[in-house]
Amino acid sequence: MTQSVRDLEGTFARSWVLLRRNWIIVVPGLVLGVLGAAAQYAVSVLLATTFVVSGNGSDDALYASMAVTQIASTVIATGFALVQLAYITGMAGACWQRGSTTLRDGWSALAHRVLPMIGAWLLLEVLAICAAFLAPVTFYVTVIIYAVFLIYTVASVIIGERGPIGAIAESSGIAFGNLGPSLGVVGLILAIAIVGAILGSFVARVSPVAASLVAGVLEQVIVAYASLVVVGEYLKLTNRPTAS
């Protein structure tokens, strides 16, 4: 199925309506964000203490502690991001298919599709590294191709129940057949992220503490809305039923 810009505008509008009616879709991101930050802090303190005590405060122990802490922090952040993306995509799918969602929808998606999601995530990371490596010599065309052609991958894994390679292939096929709307989705998400950053900077001038809270909430609202838009487009372009 192909669609027009007007159809895309309908997806944007409907996604906003679904978000306003289902604010609970923002909750998983907020909770996981707090838990992820707490886990990173706890692990960093534990590792730093362990290395300093075992190394008697030597420079080598300090450098080793910093390196291992950075690796552990990255792994934790990646894990929580993966869980969040799968969870919210499952809830977004329920929003489009039923008109409403619960936290159980996200848990069900995560529980049933966690292994394919991990595989797809690893493939996406490899492709992202390749796109970034080639970006300077391709005038960042590889980054644009990556963002546009792989944008439906997670929806394909969670909702379409495809394997990692199949999901990437389906996403690329959808984007290739609907290049204009797919570019529009990516552009919208980028624009919303920029607006959110600007709003956060304004709040930061008033109160740094308030800015961190506002930025955290805005980030999760943006993620939720972007997920609704992507899932809505995926369902439409793969001719899957949606609630009226």
Give the assembly state of these chains: single chain
Name the overall outline: globular
- How would a textbook summarize the main sheet? none
Strand content: under 5%
Residue windows where pLDDT falls under 50 for at least 5 positions? none
Structural class: mainly alpha
Number of E-state strands: 0
Tally of DSSP helical segments: 9
Q: Which percent bin holds the helix content?
A: over 70%
The topology string of helices and strands comes to HHHHHHHHH
Radius of gyration: 20 Å
The whole-number mean of residue pLDDT values reads 88
N-end to C-end Cα span: 19 Å
Key descriptive features of the protein:
244 residues, mainly alpha, single chain, globular
Care to describe what's here?
This protein has 244 residues and is mainly α. 84% of the residues lie in helices and 0% in strands. The chain contains nine helices and no strands. The chain has helices at residues 5-21, 27-54, 59-98, 103-134, 141-149, 153-158, 164-177, 179-206, 208-237. Helix 3 (59-98) crosses helix 9 (208-237). The longest helix is centred in the N-terminal third of the chain and has 40 residues, at 59-98. It is globular. 32% of the residues are buried. The mean pLDDT is 88.
